[in-house]
């Protein structure tokens, strides 16, 4: 009896995130929608950043993450953080 051989895990495979996320995935819609918004007009202006510490994330990135969580019924910020580490489409 012949067995199906497994994949060689020592091979190097390069791909982009764009290749790994399907064309009909909701993250593409979220990304395009938020990129079209005028964040300054929505009130994301006049933010003063401190020089020490880690720089903050862009408001548009956080809004994309929030919308993803809303559409996928992830309300907890801790669960959303876990999903962002686990799920490549984020």
Describe this structure in words.
The protein is an all-alpha fold and 90 residues long. The protein is 42% helix and 0% strand. It has helices at 17-20, 26-36, 59-71, 77-86. α2 (26-36) packs antiparallel against α3. The longest helix is centred in the last third of the chain and has 13 residues, at 59-71. It is elongated and about 70 Å long. The N and C termini lie far apart (42 Å). The model has no long low-confidence stretch (mean pLDDT 83).
Q: Round the mean pLDDT to the nearest integer and report it.
A: 83
Question: What structural category arises from helix and sheet content?
Answer: mainly alpha
Number of helices: 4
User: Which percent band covers the strand fraction?
Assistant: under 5%
Distance between the termini: 42 Å
Highlighted features:
about 0% strand, about 90 residues, 4 helices, mainly alpha
